[in-house]
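We now fix the convention by which a protein and its fold are recorded. The integers have meaning only within a learned vocabulary of local backbone shapes. A complete example follows; check for yourself that the lines match position by position.
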Amino acid sequence: PGGENALRLQHSLDVVAQSWGIPRQSLSVVGDRYMAFYFAIMGSVSWADSKATAIKFSPIEKKEILAIIEGLDPGIERIEYGLGLDGLITDPRQDEPLAIFQLRNGETGITQESLPHGTLIIDATSALPTDLQKFDLGTLPWCAVVLDATSWGGPRGVYYLAINSSYRWNNPFPTLNAS
């Protein structure tokens, strides 16, 4: 059954990559939502030769994201971008820090129509593939995307983490091999 399971995993990754328009080689499966966000955020803010100086987020982020942001190095500026009465983000700042971007709010159903400025960590855990496909990932400055299989009727407890190989990302856990 091990070989069959490996084939199922590879097929799953191929289907998710094709459906979401994400490069297949960037995808990994993670069994915990908090861990997926931890990898996405912490791996994006710290890397071997430099460090992010600021991170933007909205006031309606998931509790896991807010907890990770709270635990960041105090030297990283936290910038909260606004939300209009319609639930859409307002990001008047033109600077380029990391920006956590919730593509669709699972409680309100509001799907964002524009992107914040900066390199994106995309929370697509409540989104459908069509939500992400309206933005061309090939031209966007993104470093990580987190997907939740239950948002499109998949199994519970299966999360996909995409890491953009064009951006520096560092494994936030102690490891003997940093690549």
